[in-house]
Specification:
about 325 residues, alpha+beta, BirA Bifunctional Protein, domain 2, seven-stranded mixed sheet, 9 strands, binds zinc ion, Phe_tRNA_ligase_alpha1_bac, ligase
């Protein structure tokens, strides 16, 4: 095959190549180690005349260059075509990507932040007390001696050594009174535990919030103010509340705090169990004996305690039907808030 023929053939094949794989085959056939061009170059020494060898060498190299240029151009063309095809068919560059999973904050955690924020602006400082507690802090020092009938209010999870999983956040009270000097303003938002038959309204683990305020001349009026201020912030400005006498051994007097049912406005509906009111918080003035147990003279100081169950309040506020959702760790639940 002469040089001109091989040039024509190579350029034809390049023009015909319809894919990058085809093109690579053409390149190997002509420019590869055993390709046509090398074949031609190897024949040069056989030419008898020095002049002819020189001419042939130059000619073959210029053909080689033309083939290389044609290959390069075709390569660009084919790559462009490939992209266009991808664009047209399977791959839509305008379609949105796979969005990453975005977490959300558990409703109880969100609420805790709100409650902490609200009460810290009123001067309350956060306090913590153990979940696994000595009997005296959970009961005895709060005016609930071992044989006191009010212990029946709590079905308690005891350990063999006599300690208990705290049944309320009130185990914080005497601990904080002993650690501080009046005026005392502390709050706690944390878990409590009871031996409950688990159902949509009862869980062995639940949350309580409470504040303790000890100072000179602390009164029911302040308790009423604090209670209304907070419940209006949470449930809305129009929320109506009422105090009802209620017995807790560590306060005197003790009150149950009710909020008017926002769904029926007191007429009675399924949500409020036809009552028209929800019991939403418990409170009272700290019992003088509890103050004494905390090392505070009840003749000089008085105190108030006020608290509620955040689970229950959120269930009312957000329309959550089952308390167990809070503690199951199901992302489908948490993602809704
Ligand atoms: Zn109602």
């Amino acid at each position: 095959m002469n040089v001109v023929e091989s040039e024509v053939k190579a350029l034809e094949e390049i023009a015909r190549a319809s894919s990058l794989a085809d093109l690579e085959e053409v390149r190997l056939r002509h420019l590869g180690r055993n390709g046509v061009i090398n074949q031609l170059l190897s024949e040069i020494p056989e030419l008898p005349r020095q002049e002819d060898r020189k001419t042939a060498g130059g000619l073959i190299n210029s053909v080689k260059e033309k083939i290389e240029n044609a290959l390069e151009e075709k390569d660009r063309e084919l790559k462009k075509k490939d992209l266009k095809e991808i664009d047209r068919s399977s791959f839509d560059i305008t379609s949105p990507g796979i969005s990453p999973h975005v977490g959300s904050i558990h409703p109880l955690t969100q609420f805790r932040e709100f409650v902490r924020d609200t009460f810290s602006r009123l001067g309350f400082e956060e306090a913590y007390a153990p979940h696994l507690e000595e009997d005296e802090y959970n009961f005895g020092l709060l005016n609930i001696p071992p044989d006191h009938p009010s212990r029946d209010l709590w079905d308690t999870l005891y350990l063999e050594d006599g300690r208990a999983m705290r049944t309320h956040t009130s185990n914080m009270q005497v601990r904080e009174m002993r650690r501080r000097k009046p005026p005392i303003r502390v709050m706690t938002f944390d878990r409590c535990f009871r031996y409950e038959n688990v159902d949509p309204h009862h869980s062995h683990t639940f949350t309580q919030f409470e504040v303790l305020y000890v100072d000179k001349d602390v009164s029911m009026g302040q308790l009423r103010f604090l209670s209304d201020l907070f419940l209006k912030l949470v449930l809305g400005e129009k929320t109506k509340t009422r105090f009802r006498p209620k017995y807790y051994p560590f306060v005197e007097p003790g009150v149950g705090v009710d909020a008017l049912c926002p769904f029926c406005e007191g007429k009675g509906c399924r949500v409020c169990g036809m009552e028209g009111w929800f019991e939403i918080a418990g409170a009272g003035l700290v019992h003088p004996q509890v103050l004494r147990n905390g090392g505070i003279d009840p003749k000089v100081y008085s105190g108030l305690a006020w608290g509620f169950g955040p689970d229950r309040m959120l269930m009312i506020k957000l329309g959550i039907e089952d308390i167990r959702y809070f503690y199951e760790g199901d992302l489908r639940f948490a993602k809704q808030f």
